[in-house]
Amino acid sequence: MLKESGVLEGLVEAIRQRQAILFAGAGVSMTVGLPSWSTLIEHIAQELEIDLTDFRGTDLNYLTLAEYYRLKQGSIGPLRSWMDRNWTIPEEALKTSRVHELICKLDFPIIYTTNFDRNLENSYDLYGKDYVKIVNAKDVARIHEDVTQIVKYHGDFDDDGSIVIAETDYLERLSFESPLDIKFRSDALGKTILFIGYSMTDLNIRFLMHRLWKTWADSGYERDRPQSYVFMLRPNPVEQAVLEQWGLQVLTEKECKPEAALETFLAKLHKAVEEDGACA
């Protein structure tokens, strides 16, 4: 049981008290078969007639390629449309996702996600749970107490202008001053955060984690900061040392295959929350 290790005691209690935020990345959507970023690179290359073998051995990433796409096509709209068509999971497939079911059952009051797809929203619909989707500043006025907020931190397929996918989009977000960044800083200061589904090579998320740590360090009240957590599919002592320096507790399922690790972790977490609740 997770609670027995003592590592997750604070997280379990924060979830029970509705004082925890979930921050969900691409790894969550990939559990239901969504394409990887490499698939996106291949599609852009095919549409723009780029021979990827010409770039073998170079660091061509989807951010730069998406920026090039926008320069050549005039907008990101056609690419967004392709992603929307190919990253929409049928309801029957979503019903089989234990990861999405467990996220709904854990009942976080606020979920931030960098995913553009609607899988989280569709899961909440599927399980009959209320939520409000927040994509921009005006959506903040739609927040209601006791209704889960699903904050589309990097945009939503319903709004081309909101999507953060190209290199310029990411660089502009590094100012950490957009309305959603300001909302996140406010939300995060008083709550525990659980990051799942992220590769720690994601510079934007690493920067966000660092800025959160720096905010507390500069305040002089770092000791009062709620504990936050990062779930990683594989143990990595180098990443763990750096993240723990920033005040983040690293969690893994050491005995689990990476493809099953997130589901196993969430199942154990849900069990611990339910058992503690029954004893309360």
Question: Which helices and strands appear, and what pairs or packs with what?
Answer:
Layout: H1 2-5, H2 9-16, E1 20-24, H3 26-30, H4 37-47, H5 62-73, H6 77-86, H7 91-95, H8 98-106, E2 110-113, H9 119-126, E3 131-134, E4 148-152, H10 167-173, H11 179-189, E5 192-196, H12 203-219, E6 228-231, H13 237-245, E7 248-251, H14 258-279
Parallel strand pairs: 1-2, 1-5, 2-4, 3-4, 5-6, 6-7
Q: What is the ordering of alpha helices and beta strands?
A: HHEHHHHHHEHEEHHEHEHEH
Task: Report the biggest beta sheet as strand number plus sense, adding barrel if it closes.
Answer: 7 strands, parallel
* Percent in strands: 5-15%
Shape: globular
